[in-house]
Amino acid sequence: MKSISRTETYNTTPGQVFKCIDDLGVTGMHMTQSSMMMMGSKLNLEFLTENHTGLGSKYRWAGKMIGMPMDFTVEVTKWISGQEKIWETIGDTKLIIYSWYRMHLIVTPMLNGSKAELSISYEKPKGFFNKILSFLFADWYCKWCLKHMLGDAKIFLQANRKVLNES
């Protein structure tokens, strides 16, 4: 198993940072929009539980990337509001550069703001072709994903600072 992490600082409370990163409408956007890193493809997001956040929430990503089907379910296995979240793939997965992954978020207070550390741990896929793709692209994709998730959260928080401060 391999892990890659990234840290970002924010000029707002840990609770606001956690809530933002916990919202797939903010941090999952990079997978639902066509981009070079997604090879011009995008995935569809389907919530499988009534609760979209919190312990036990589940969602499914499905679509195609470079003509290959992707279909995987993710479940939140640890959730401490405002502090920590762990989510990982469950069941049968159709992934290209991983066979399984887990993401871990920890948000901590800092002087004048918060720090968020986000990591991806993954196992390499089976099959010769997918192993080659994983060797070439998995770390690169992980870094891109972490950068977008934390960066999109920062953009959202800055754009909505006034609204968040009033609530």
Summary, kept brief:
The protein is an alpha+beta fold and 167 residues long. The chain has helices at residues 14-22, 24-27, 29-32, 128-159, 161-166; strands spanning 2-10, 43-47, 58-65, 68-80, 84-94, 100-110, 113-123.
Describe the structure.
The protein has a single domain, classed as START domain (Alpha-D-Glucose-1,6-Bisphosphate, Chain A, domain 4). The protein is 33% helix and 41% strand. It contains five helices and seven strands, in the order βαααββββββαα. A hairpin with a 2-residue loop joins β3 and β4. It has 167 residues and is α+β, with helices and mostly antiparallel strands. The mean pLDDT is 87. α1 (14-22) crosses α4. Strands 1-7-6-5-4-3-2 form a seven-stranded antiparallel β-sheet, covered by helices on one side. It starts with a strand and ends with a helix.
Fourth CATH level, the homologous superfamily: START domain
Shape: globular
Proportion of helical residues:
25-40%
> Quick one: CATH class?
Alpha Beta
- How are the strands of the largest sheet arranged? 1-7-6-5-4-3-2
N- to C-terminal distance: 41 Å
Radius of gyration: 16 Å
CATH-defined topology: Alpha-D-Glucose-1,6-Bisphosphate, Chain A, domain 4
Structural class: alpha+beta
Which whole number gives the mean pLDDT? Answer: 87
Count of helical regions:
5
Count the E strands.
7
Layout: helices, strands, pairs:
Blueprint: E1 2-10, H1 14-22, H2 24-27, H3 29-32, E2 43-47, E3 58-65, E4 68-80, E5 84-94, E6 100-110, E7 113-123, H4 128-159, H5 161-166
Antiparallel strand pairs: 1-7, 2-3, 3-4, 4-5, 5-6, 6-7
Helix pairs in contact: 1-4
